Amino acid sequence: MLLLTILADGVIYASWLFIVALGLTLIFGVLKILNIAHGSFYAVGAYAAASFVAWFVSMDMAPEWSILAMLMAAVATAALLAPLTEQGLLRFFYGRDEVLLVLVTYALFLILEDVTKLVWGPTPYYVSEPYTLFGNIEVGPLFYVGYDAMLVVFAILCGIGVWWALNRTKTGKVVLAVIHSDEVASSMGVNVSRIYTFAFAFGIFLAALAGALTAPMVSVQPGLASGVIIVSFAVVIIGGLGSIQGAAIGALIVGLARAAAVHTWPAAELFSVYVAMAIVLIFRPEGLFQRVQARKI
Amino acid sequence: MRSNMLIWGGGVTLLLLIAGYLMPKWALFLCTMAMSHGLVSLGIVVLMRSGVVSFGQGFSFAIGGYCTAFMTNFFGVTDAFLLVMSSGAASVLIALPFAPLLSRYRGIFFAMLTLAISMVLYGVLVKTTELGGSDGFNVSRPTLFGMELDNENANMVLYQLAAVIVGVALTWSRIYTQSTRGLVSLAVREAELRVEYLGASVASTIATNYLVAAALGGLGGALTVLALGHIDPNFSYWTTSGEFVFVAILGGHYSMTAVFLGSLLVEIVRSFSNLYFPNTWQLAMGLFLLVVIRFLPHGLGSLWRRGSTGDQQ
After folding, report:
1. Is residue A38 part of a domain?
2. Is B123 an interface residue toward A (CB < 8 Å)?
3. In a domain, A60, yes or no
4. Could you give the CA distance from residue B7 to residue B64 in angstroms, rounded to a whole number?
5. Tell me: the pLDDT tens digits for A83-128?
6. Which of B115, B122, B280 sits opposite A270 (nearest CB)?
7. Which site among B120, B122, B131, B277 would you substitute to test the A interface, given the most A Cβ atoms closer than 10 Å to its Cβ?
């Protein structure tokens, strides 16, 4: 019974975490940037969803449309912020030290923190309309909100979709080539900088989408960004930076660790995630799915 | 060389002490904060010289701070000097088991693992109601060498304590960076494998530098708590660590003194933006950081010490 609760909660938590981490790991794979600002894009996505859903509601549209509103919010966030940050900022720092790039995105995080506060103000938003859309679902003796279950399905679809796009389409294979080596890809005639822009935009879209999808489950308020980024870092580090399977396994490990802590020892909620990460790193220093790399002398 | 540095260090300390008498009260507090935060960033710079950046310096900062707060409130130790020193020692002691583990990691993994350690501490502190939980608790005013401190002289005395500790730490770190291990650190950053072939241990260099950073972080945390009179788990939150890295980058690794100038600059920017545009100070800091990274990649120190420490970059 307890095990079932932990399992269900863990998988639900893991599913939105997976969508965030997918974007993070994709951006790292292609651009070699560990993006602290990813959490900010998540937060902007959540805020945008709050605004879009409220706007749809004010137009007297049926609550079913709020799903579309959330999707639109994610697209709008990516369309607006991706070119701005990639073309206007990150482009100047490509090829620099990875740790330095972390700092650049940290600066971006600080800036976006205040920008979201300026745009949406410090008061929390609640997006309750979509949450009741799917009714309740009975899992054995437990009741779950249908929306949560839909989230799990959606996360699986996202994962399969991205995997299929990368491995079965031409653009995807080009992206994989860039991940492997941007220099060789560029000498084969790949427009690497376009792939960068594309991958970054898609990564932001995933962050914003995860933000939009979680908006109905939480209160959207300042501080959202700094909390989510730390947990999703743990996910991608566990899974191995740049690996999609890794992000999925990492999200499951983190989700289950957190759910187990919440139900058995609530005080350990926050640090269970990092303990899980530390244990994985002690045995697999580069994460579970990291490619072996040659030592350079 | 060495005696020159000692004289230089004495001079700087004296200068700081004299400057203390010329400052208004608010500037005194601001400088105390800048110095105690600067100590933490100095630790990051020492680590940075060996090619790794800690994103979890808030860990040592919080250990130092909680050690001081704990000893004051629960054991009745009030002497400021004793508190600061034992907090530094406690910070090293607690960092000790992590040092051999961390010395196996580089780059992003080192940064993320240190960050994880500091977040574990944050998670524990937030949930520990005995230590005030997420609100933290107030720390009563210390004494110094049997001298009672009141409202009038507390600021000044704590400033002087910070000034002396900063003077000593600065001089020591200048000597350390010119020592064999200090120079090996630079070599580790340039080419690890060659250092190993030449017979020096990369892991022990990084571990030592990590412990040095922990000591400095502990001292900084203790001084901060004494000056603020309050502590909470945010000492260990990752954004706090981010600010320390910010100051370290701003100072750069060319000059140890530059770190404290950077720290002072950030404290000034912080308090003025808090005053005049309270809702956008993070925005200002972010833009500031971007400008520094873009146009001054080796920090303030590179303005006057380019290449003179023997590393050509």
Report:
1. yes
2. yes
3. yes
4. 29
5. 899 888 888 888 777 778 888 998 999 999 889 988 988 888 887 7
6. B122
7. B120
Angle CA A179–A89–A247, to nearest 5: 35
For residue A72, what are its two tokens? 């639109």
Domain spans in chain B, listed from the N-terminal domain onward: 2-237
Q: B220 Cβ partners below 8 Å, 6+ apart? A: B36, B37, B38, B39, B40, B43, B61, B64
A-B contacts at Cβ under 8 angstroms: 111
Q: Which amino acid is at B15?
A: L
Q: What's the confidence (pLDDT) of residue B313?
A: 37
At residue A117's C-alpha, the angle toward residues A115 and A118, to 5°, is: 65
Which DSSP helix (H) or strand (E) runs through A137? Answer: strand A136-139
Closest by CA position to B11, among listed B180, B167, B196? B167
User: Is A293 within a domain?
Assistant: no
CATH number at residue A11: 1.10.3470
Q: Around Cβ B265, how many Cβ atoms within 10 Å?
A: 17
For residue B179, CA distances in Å to A278, B172, B302 come to 34, 10, 21
DSSP, collapsed to helix, strand or coil, labels residue A85 as helix
For the complex shown, is ipTM > 0.85? no
A187 assigned to some structural domain: yes
Range(s) of the domain holding residue A25: 2-283
| Residues of chain B positioned with their CB less than 8 A from the CB of A282 | 101
Number of structural domains (chain A) is: 1
Q: What is the pTM of this model?
A: 0.87
Element housing B93 (H / E): helix B80-95
CA separation for the pair B304, A240 (Å, rounded): 41
CA distance A78 to A210: 12
Q: Are B6 and B12 in contact (CB under 8 A)?
A: no
**DSSP conformation letters of B253-265:** SS-HHHHHHHHHH
